[in-house]
Amino acid sequence: MNLSDKILKENSRKNWEEVGNHIVRNPEKFDELIQLVIHGKGRLARLASQVMTNLADDHPEFFSENYLTALVDLLVSVKDFSIIRNTVRIFQFITVPEEKEGLLFELGLKFIRNPDSPVAVKAFSMTALRKICEKYPELSGELIPLIEILIEEKVSPGIVNRGMQELNNLRKLMN
Fold it and tell me: Rounded CA gap, 138 and 42, in Å?
């Protein structure tokens, strides 16, 4: 199977799952998928990032430290919010390599502050950053005020709900 052709064939959950299942059966294809996310252009990179995030749900074992490091580095330069969303989503469930925690924390704060960031990017960033705060509780003081602002501004019902959950978790860390 030519991964690029299959990914571009159709933008549907069914297709993402077919590509993901192919990668599960052929794990050597995972590197090719990550390269498409990082170096692919436009629609190909966006759809590859969707396959990637779906794989993260059921097969986190594919995400070695090298891949996770490369994905954090990708967040520095990528401008496409769908790739940002799918990449940050992974870090809600998979622990970021220690040497990239600071960078991911700063990027997540930037995504939360950015008025142009989609709701999902803000929500996923809150959770990914809270996970980092579990290891470094002193960072909660930077994240709490940003979440409070989002809740106060009622950015969206989803943000308010996620924000309240994360504030409760963060405040427990501070006690």
Answer: 38
CA distance 140 to 147: 10
CB atoms near residue 54 (< 10 Å) = 18
Q: Are 75 and 49 in contact (CB under 8 A)?
A: no
| pLDDT tens readout for residues 144-161 | 999 999 999 887 998 999
User: What are the residue ranges of helices labelled H in the chain?
Assistant: 3-9, 13-25, 29-39, 42-58, 65-77, 81-90, 101-113, 119-135, 140-152, 157-174
Residue type, 149: I
Q: Annotate 144-155 with b (16+ C-beta within 10 A) or e (fewer).
A: bebbeebbeeeb
CB atoms within 10 A of CB 75: 20
- Quote the Cα angle for 114-70-82, to 5°: 40
Give the integer Cα–Cα distance in Å for 62 and 72: 16
Angle between helices 140-152 and 157-174 (to 10 degrees): 150
Per-residue pLDDT tens over the stretch 83-137: 999 999 999 999 999 999 999 999 999 999 999 999 999 999 999 999 999 999 9
